[in-house]
Amino acid sequence: RFDDEKELSDYVFSRDQVIQRARLLGGSWLGTTFPTYNTGTKRAASGIFMLNGQQQCLDMIRDREARRGRQYSRVIHTRTDIKWIYPHPNVTLLRSDAAWVPDTYSDDYCGIYDKHFVLPRSAADHVLGALELLRSGCSALLLEHFPSKARRGRNYTNGEQSFFSRLLSAPGSKGNERVQIHRFPLTGYTSCQPGKVVLRSDAINSVAGPFLCLQDDDARYTAEKDAAQFYSECLAASGGWTSASINHCLARQAERRAAIGHVRRGCHPASPMMKQQYHGTQ
Fold first, then answer.
1. 13 to each of 54, 157, 222, 236, how far by Cα in Å?
2. Beta pairing, strands 188-190 & 197-202
3. Which of 3, 191, 227, 265 is deepest in the core (most CB within 10 A)?
């Protein structure tokens, strides 16, 4: 990881004119762990590493497709540290021409949840090929036109916004149309290794700090785990992964958050391509 990140950091902070335009957009989307580059623009993060990991994933997909002689129909991107409380929905329940992103009602951070998603193959090159977009100058252009007021601040461009800008502009499976974006309840949470001190954050109360990960207390993001537990219990009590139960549980979660005065952290106008309710195979 760190050899790759050092090489990418050197490029990001080089004098290349294309990358300089992107670098003007401060924030963790181009974050690095190398202290040399953490100079007042909120760069101390893993954004560069994440972009590189997604590009490597895309490169492996392309290589495998070349060897097998045909493309995959779908791509699922996930994290190995997500602990699933309730089974993931079968992909046959999810429309194959849409992008599917889990919902927690709290973890979009003015963009959209980026730890797990299901894509049609037509959108994967654009969504996962972030380094290619960065080197071509398209990343800066997409973010400059991203409809988030928060992003226009000097230090607030984050990974969720970077991911959402690519997702909103990704091609669909039919001609020149953009891919539709649908949400489904998240039933897993990002865990940590017991015994390790890691950063824990709470999207509802906007606080973060170090904590000792324990076997029975291993959630990196407290609002995310709360949502995963609620959705898992709601789906189990409502008949599992059906259209009716999914829409019911999404609505219940919105009511739960409203009851504590928490509104969705989506700082962009609602996209006509993003459907909050579940739209399955029909």
1. 20, 17, 34, 49
2. unpaired
3. 227
Separation between Cα atoms, residue 178 and residue 143, nearest integer Å: 17
**Which residues 6+ apart lie within 8 Å of 163 measured at CB?**
111, 112, 114, 127
Q: Closest Cα partner for 5 from 77, 53, 42, 57?
A: 53
Q: Quick one: tokens of 139?
A: 């990343």
Q: Which two tokens stand for residue 221?
A: 């993001």
CB-based contact 73:120 (threshold 8 Å): yes
> Which residues lie closer than 8 Å to 9 by C-beta, 6 or more apart?
32, 34, 36, 37, 48
Angstrom distance (rounded) from CA 232 to CA 7? 41
pTM listed for this prediction? 0.87
